[in-house]
Design a protein that fits this description.
Shape: elongated
Protein name: Glutamate receptor
Mean pLDDT: 82
Largest sheet: 8 strands, mixed
Helix content: 40-55%
Number of helices: 30
Keywords: Disulfide bond, Glycoprotein, Ion channel, Ion transport, Ligand-gated ion channel, Membrane, Receptor, Signal, Transmembrane, Transmembrane helix, Transport
Strand content: 15-25%
Distance between the termini: 184 Å
Oligomer: single chain
Radius of gyration: 52 Å
Strand order of the largest sheet: 7-6-8-9-10-15-16-17
GO molecular function, one term: ligand-gated monoatomic ion channel activity
Main location: membrane
Membrane topology: Multi-pass membrane protein
C-alpha cells in the first residue's frame, strides 16, 4: 500500500494521453501496456489483435461473451505505464498483458496484488520478479535466469574463465547480470568487469564510447551484451569503430539481437558489418503445423511492415492462455464481478478517481486457472512448473554471418548445449555430461573460425608484477646478480624459456620478495599472489595442497618431494666382514642344503659308484667333502647314476647363483660407506627423539609438525647448505629433511652425507598465478613443450648437474642378502632331491622283491618283518655287482639241481623197464 500512496499525486493532465478502447457491455476486458514503437511492441500488438480475433471467431468459446483488448502505449515512460494500469482498473479489466519492461513490472505488480488482477508479461523477464512477492504477476516466456544459464554454459563450453559484461543499468538488465555472475561462479568462471550504460533508449554514443574504451583496456576479450535494440546496435557500431569487432574478441548478445534480426530483414550493410561474428540467443519454438500456418498469415496481418519473431508468438499464446482460463472460469459458474476497495474509498475526486478502482472478485480463481493451463500454442506445449517457470525452457543459438545468420545449436534446461533439437532430447534420458555438450563451428569476429583465446594482457601500460623469492642459500635456483637488479637461476631460465614459446608477448618485471638475510616464507609469497599484490610468483615454489586452494599452479617443471639426509662414515675393517653378505638364516639354510644334497647324491651313488663306498668313516668324509667341494665346483667324485647327475646339475646351478650373489654383496660391503646414524627412513626418524633440520621458508616444517606429528621442539631451522653441513657434522641435528632438488644440489658438494631411505612425499615445483588465470594454462602448455624438445633438461644440466664427489659416495643400502631372495632355488633343489629319492626307493623295492624271492630259501619267507627289513637294508648297502653275482650264482645252482633230478628220474625209469623185461622173460621161461 505504501507504493500506492504516491500515485495520488499523479498529474491529471496525463489522462488525455491515454489511448484506451471502450469495450461494449458484456465483453471480457483485458488490457495491454507496451511501447508500440519498439520491435517487440509492434509484433506484440499485431499478434495480440490476431489472437483476440481468433478467440472471438467462435462465439460459443466464452459462452456468448467476446474478448475485448485495450492497448496502452507507454512510449518508454514508466509514468504512463502506471497511468494506463490505473485506467484499466476503472474499466473492470480481468487481466493485463505487460508491462514491457521489468522496471514497471516491479511497480505495477503491487497494483495487481491489491486489486487481484493477473498481470502476464512475456518481455519483463527479470529473474528477481518472485511469485512470492508478486503472486499476481506471471511471466509467460522463460525468464532471464535460463538465458543467463545458457550464456554461462556457452562461456564454459568454449573454455573461457572471465567475461566482461556491458548492460543497460535498469532492473531487468542489472538483475540478469547479477544472476549471470552467480551461475558463472558455479562453473569456476567470473565477471571480471561490468560496464553499465544508461537505460535504453537514453544512452548516447558518448556514453557508450566511454564505457567501451574502458572495456578495451581490460584483460578479458569475452563480452556479454545484455541490453535492448537501440542501445545494443549503438554498442556494436561503436565497438566496430574502436576495433573491438576484430579477431580476438568474443561477443555474446542476449535475445534482443535475434529479435532484431528476425523482424528487420533485410538489415543495412553497416549494421550487418558491425555485428559480424556475434553470437546471440533466440527463444526456441518447435516447428508445428499451427506455427507454419501463422507464419504464412503473418505477412497479411503485418502488411509486410515487420518480420515475425519469437515475442509475437508468445504474445499470441498469452492471449489464448487468458481466454482459456476465462473459459474454465465461466464454465465452472464463475461470475465476472468487481467490488470497491475500501482502502481507496477516501481517495476519490478529480479526473483521476482512485476510489473508482475496483477489485476483481474472481481474480484469485482466474490466476489459479492460468497457472494450471495445459495447452499447445504457437510456442509449443504451454504449462507452468511449481515455481511458475514455463515448462521446457530452451533457446536457439545463432551466429551472425554475412547479411544473415546460421544456427549453431540449441540450449535447453533439460540437456544443456546440443546440436539436436530439444524435442528430440526430451525423448531421451537427460545427459549433461561434458562429452555430450556440443555446438557447430562458429565464425568469430574478424571472420576467423579459430576460437579466440578470450583474453589479452591489460592495455594499460602496466607490466606483470612477478614475485621472486630473495633466497639466501641454494642460489642456483634463484639469485640476484651482484651489484645489479638482474635475477638469474634455474627457475628464472625455465620461466623465460616458457614465455618465449607463448604466441603473444608478455610484459613483466621481477620483484624480489624477502629481506635478503633469510629465506622468505613461501606461503606468504603465494598469499600475495592470491591477494593480487603480485600477478604471479616464480621460483622454487612447491605445489602443495594448502597453496592450490588459493592460487593456480602451472604444470610442474621439476619433480620434488621430501627426503632425509644423514652423515656417512667409512666402513671399519673387521675380521668377520666376509660373513656380512648373508644373514645368519641364509648361512644356516645354505649349509644345511650342502649336507642334504651330499647325502642324497651318496644314497643315489652308493650301490653303483666305488667312490661312494668303503668304511663308514670314509663314507662320512666323502659326503662332507663332496657337499662342500661343490661350492667351488672342485668335487672329484664322478656320478654315474642318472638321478645323481640330475641332482648334481640342479645343485651346481644353485651354487652358481649363490656364489655370484655372495661375491657381489661382499664387494659392495667392502667398498661403500655406511650411515653413521641408526636412521633408516622416515619411520625411524619419527619414532626417535633426535633433532631434525629443515630449510627456512619451506613447507617441510608444517608438514612434519602437522602431518607427521613431530614436535616442533625437535625441529631446527637452517638457512643454507653450509648450515646443513655444520649442523650435521657437529651433531646439532641427526638428519635434515628437505626437498629432493635442494638435497641433490647439497650432496653434489658435500660428500660426507647421503640420502636415507625413500622419498616420502611426491610433488613438484610450479609457477603460481591467481585463480582462473588463463596465463597459467598457456604457461603449462609451454612447459610441456620445453620438456618434449629437451630444453628443460638442458637448463637443468646448466644449473644443477654439478656433482664433484663422483664415486666417493654411494648411497647406503643394506647389502645383506636374505633368504627371501633365494628360497625359490632352494625349493627347486629340495623337490628334486625328494623326487629322486622316491624314484630310487621304488626301484630298490622292485629289485629287492626279485632278489629276495630268488636268492633266499623258502623257509625265510615266513620270517619276521624286521628280518626282512634288515635284509632290505643289507641289499641296498650291497654293491650292485655283488647282488647281481649272488643272483647269478643262485640261478646257476638252481639250474644244476634241476638237471640232476631230471637225470636221476630218467635212470630210475630205465631200471624199472629192464626189471620188467627180465621178469617177463623169466615168466615165459617158467611157463614153458
Amino acid at each position: 500500500m505504501g507504493s500506492l500512496v504516491w500515485l495520488v499525486h499523479i498529474p491529471l493532465l496525463i489522462i488525455g494521453a491515454l489511448s484506451v478502447a471502450v469495450a461494449e457491455p458484456g465483453d471480457v476486458n483485458i488490457g495491454a501496456i507496451f511501447t508500440f514503437s519498439t520491435i517487440n511492441g509492434k509484433v506484440a500488438k499485431i499478434a495480440m489483435e490476431a489472437a483476440v480475433q481468433d478467440v472471438n471467431s467462435d462465439p460459443n468459446f466464452l459462452g456468448g461473451k467476446k474478448l475485448a483488448i485495450s492497448m496502452h502505449d507507454s512510449n518508454y515512460s514508466g509514468f504512463l505505464s502506471i497511468i494506463g494500469a490505473l485506467q484499466y482498473m476503472e474499466l473492470d479489466t480481468v487481466a493485463i498483458i505487460g508491462p514491457q519492461s521489468a522496471v514497471m513490472a516491479h511497480v505495477l505488480s503491487y497494483l495487481a496484488n491489491e486489486l487481484h488482477v493477473p498481470m502476464l508479461s512475456f518481455t519483463a523477464l527479470d529473474p528477481t520478479l518472485s511469485p512470492l512477492q508478486y503472486p499476481y504477476f506471471i511471466q509467460t516466456a522463460p525468464n532471464d535466469l535460463f538465458q543467463m544459464t545458457a550464456i554461462a554454459e556457452m562461456v564454459s563450453y568454449f573454455g573461457y574463465r572471465e567475461v566482461t559484461v556491458v548492460f543497460s543499468d535498469d532492473d531487468q538488465s542489472r538483475n540478469g547480470i547479477s544472476v549471470l555472475g552467480d551461475i558463472l561462479a558455479e562453473r569456476r568462471c567470473k565477471i571480471s568487469y561490468k560496464a553499465a550504460l544508461p537505460p535504453d533508449p537514453i544512452a548516447t554514443r558518448d556514453n557508450i564510447k566511454n564505457a567501451l574504451i574502458k572495456v578495451r583496456l581490460m584483460e578479458s576479450r569475452v563480452i556479454v551484451l545484455h541490453t535492448f535494440k537501440i542501445t545494443g546496435l549503438q554498442v556494436f557500431d561503436v565497438a566496430q569503430y574502436l576495433g573491438m569487432m576484430d579477431s580476438g574478441y568474443v561477443w555474446i548478445a542476449s535475445t534482443w539481437l535475434s529479435s532484431f534480426l528476425d523482424s528487420s530483414s533485410p538489415i543495412s550493410h553497416n549494421t550487418a558489418k558491425s555485428i559480424q561474428g556475434a553470437i546471440t540467443l533466440r527463444h526456441h519454438t518447435p516447428d508445428s503445423e499451427k506455427k507454419r500456418a501463422f507464419l504464412t498469415r503473418w505477412n497479411q496481418l503485418s502488411n509486410n511492415s515487420i518480420g515475425l519473431n519469437a515475442y509475437a508468438l508468445y504474445a499470441y499464446d498469452t492471449v489464448w492462455m487468458i481466454a482459456n482460463a476465462v473459459k474454465v472460469f465461466l464454465e465452472n459458474g464463475g461470475n465476472i464481478s468487481f467490488s470497491n476497495d475500501p482502502t481507496l474509498s477516501g481517495l476519490g475526486g478529480g479526473a483521476l478517481n482512485l476510489a473508482a478502482l475496483s477489485v476483481f472478485d474472481g481474480g484469485k480463481q482466474l490466476l489459479s486457472n492460468i497457472l494450471q493451463i495445459n495447452m499447445t500454442g504457437l510456442t509449443g506445449p504451454l504449462g507452468f512448473n511449481p515455481d511458475r517457470s514455463l515448462i521446457h525452457p530452451s533457446y536457439d543459438i545463432i551466429n551472425v554471418i554475412g547479411s544473415g545468420f546460421q544456427q549453431i545449436g540449441y540450449w535447453s534446461n533439460y540437456s544443456g548445449l546440443s546440436v539436436e533439437s530439444p524435442e528430440v532430447l526430451y525423448t531421451k534420458p537427460p545427459n549433461r555430461s561434458s562429452s555430450n555438450q556440443q555446438l557447430h563451428s562458429v565464425v568469430w569476429p574478424g571472420g576467423t573460425t579459430i576460437k579466440p583465446r578470450g583474453w589479452v594482457f591489460p592495455n594499460n601500460g602496466r607490466k606483470l608484477r612477478i614475485g621472486v623469492p630473495n633466497r639466501v642459500g641454494y642460489k642456483a635456483f634463484v639469485s640476484r646478480v651482484n651489484g645489479t637488479n638482474k635475477i638469474q637461476g634455474y627457475c628464472i631460465d625455465v620461466f623465460n624459456a616458457a614465455v618465449k614459446l607463448l604466441p603473444y608477448g608478455v610484459p613483466y618485471e621481477f620483484i624480489l620478495f624477502g629481506d635478503g638475510h633469510k629465506n622468505p616464507s613461501y606461503a606468504e609469497l603465494v598469499h600475495k599472489v592470491a591477494s593480487n599484490v603480485f600477478d604471479a610468483a616464480v621460483g622454487d615454489i612447491a605445489i602443495v595442497t594448502n597453496r592450490t586452494k588459493n592460487v593456480d599452479f602451472t604444470q610442474p617443471y621439476i619433480e620434488s618431494g621430501l627426503v632425509i639426509v644423514a652423515p656417512l662414515r667409512k666402513l671399519n675393517s673387521s675380521a668377520w666382514a666376509f660373513l656380512r653378505p648373508f644373514t645368519p638364516l641364509m648361512w644356516g639354510v645354505t649349509a644345511a642344503f650342502f649336507l642334504i644334497v651330499g647325502a642324497v647324491v651318496w644314497i643315489l651313488e652308493h650301490r653303483l659308484n666305488d667312490e661312494f663306498r668303503g668304511p663308514p668313516r670314509k663314507q662320512l668324509m666323502t659326503i662332507l667333502w663332496f657337499s662342500f667341494s661343490t661350492m667351488f665346483f672342485a668335487h672329484r667324485e664322478n656320478t654315474v647314476s642318472t638321478l645323481g647327475r640330475m641332482i648334481l646339475i640342479i645343485w651346481l646351478f644353485v651354487v652358481l647363483i649363490i656364489n655370484s650373489s655372495y661375491t657381489a654383496s661382499l664387494t659392495s660391503i667392502l667398498t661403500v660407506q655406511q650411515l653413521a646414524s641408526n636412521i633408516k627412513g622416515i619411520d625411524t626418524l619419527i619414532a626417535s627423539n633426535v633433532r631434525i633440520g629443515f630449510q627456512v621458508g619451506s613447507f617441510a616444517e608444517n608438514y612434519m609438525s602437522e602431518e607427521l606429528g613431530i614436535s616442533k621442539s625437535r625441529l631446527v631451522a637452517l638457512g643454507s647448505p653450509e648450515e646443513y653441513a655444520m649442523a650435521l657434522e657437529k651433531g646439532t641435528v641427526a638428519a635434515v629433511v628437505d626437498e629432493r632438488p635442494y638435497i641433490e644440489l647439497f650432496l653434489s658438494t658435500y660428500c660426507k652425507f647421503s640420502i636415507v631411505g625413500q622419498e616420502f612425499t611426491k610433488s613438484g615445483w610450479g609457477f603460481a598465478f591467481p585463480r582462473d588465470s588463463p596465463l597459467a594454462i598457456d604457461m603449462s602448455t609451454a612447459i610441456l613443450a620445453l620438456s618434449e624438445n629437451g630444453e628443460l633438461q638442458k637448463i637443468h644440466d646448466k644449473w644443477l648437474n654439478k656433482d664433484v664427489c663422483g664415486s666417493e659416495r654411494s648411497q647406503f643400502d643394506s647389502s645383506e642378502l636374505h633368504l627371501n631372495s633365494f628360497w625359490g632355488l632352494f625349493v627347486i633343489s629340495g623337490i628334486a632331491c625328494i623326487l629322486a629319492l622316491l624314484v630310487y626307493f621304488c626301484m630298490m623295492l622292485r629289485k629287492f622283491g626279485r632278489y629276495f624271492t630268488e636268492v633266499h630259501d623258502p623257509s625265510i619267507h615266513g620270517s619276521s618283518r624286521s628280518a626282512r627289513v634288515q635284509t632290505f637294508f643289507s641289499f641296498v648297502n650291497e654293491k650292485a655287482e655283488v647282488s647281481k653275482s649272488k643272483l647269478k650264482r643262485k640261478r646257476t645252482e638252481l639250474s644244476s639241481d634241476v638237471s640232476r633230478r631230471e637225470l636221476e628220474s630218467t635212470n630210475g625209469s630205465e631200471r624199472i623197464e629192464i626189471g620188467i623185461s627180465e621178469e617177463r622173460r623169466y615168466s615165459d621161461t617158467w611157463l614153458r
